[in-house]
Design brief:
The chain has about 120 residues and is mostly helical. The protein has a single domain, classed as Helicase, Ruva Protein, domain 3 (Orthogonal Bundle). Helix content is about 60%, strand content about 5%.
């Protein structure tokens, strides 16, 4: 068995529940707890996101917190485009709401396999 001092990185396994916690932590820190999630922060869309990120972390061997932080950046970019588009269309979107499409992307929200973040 190798110790962290031997030069090999310590890899932690991230489960869905871990990723949900990290997702919530990142959102609270970025938005002071004001951002809401369609379906709730432990709802089906957030759980699907957490499952995807957990699989990605397991496949790539990267740090779950760093991956989730990057994923949240992608999510908020989608959300900004959606809010802008809806505003231009004369609607009044909630800028503090992440929708299913924001979280999962258009392909993921429609149930298409292979949707990536």
């Amino acid at each position: 068995m190798s110790s962290p001092q031997s030069g090999q990185a310590f890899m932690r396994s991230y489960e869905e529940a871990d990723m949900l916690e990290i997702f919530s932590y990142v959102l609270v820190n970025r938005y002071s707890g004001r951002m809401r999630i369609e379906g709730g922060e432990r709802g089906p869309h957030a759980r699907t996101l957490a499952q995807r990120v957990s699989r990605r972390v397991a496949q790539t061997g990267t740090d779950g917190a760093r991956v989730m932080d990057s994923v949240v950046t992608v999510i908020t970019s989608r959300q900004a485009r959606r809010v802008d588009s809806e505003t231009r269309a004369g609607r009044n979107p909630d800028p503090m709401l992440l929708t299913k499409e924001d979280l999962l992307g258009e392909e993921g929200a429609t149930g298409s396999n292979g949707a990536r973040h």
